[in-house]
Specification:
The chain has about 70 residues and is an all-alpha fold. It has helices spanning about 1-60, 65-70. It has one domain. The relative contact order is 0.05.
């Protein structure tokens, strides 16, 4: 009974150690990928907003009444 418990305990700690090591190797690329994806998504949103803004400014500049006030 003691041998089975010792073997199970060391196997469990061995497995936990390997999962911990694996997580420390896998975490940085995953975090970098997430940050890159978020950055790209934010750039797309910013580009859309700028395009809307640019369109609105062009409409305002083409309006004759606004040209006179500007």
């Amino acid at each position: 009974m003691i041998i089975i418990t010792a073997t199970a305990g060391s196997a469990a700690s061995f497995t936990i150690t390997w999962f911990s090591a694996g997580a420390s190797f896998a975490a940085p690329p995953v975090v970098m990928s997430i940050l890159l994806i978020r950055s790209v998504a934010q750039q797309i949103v910013n580009q859309r907003d700028y395009s809307k803004f640019k369109t609105l400014v062009n409409k305002m500049l083409k309006d004759d009444e606004l040209k006179q006030t500007i």
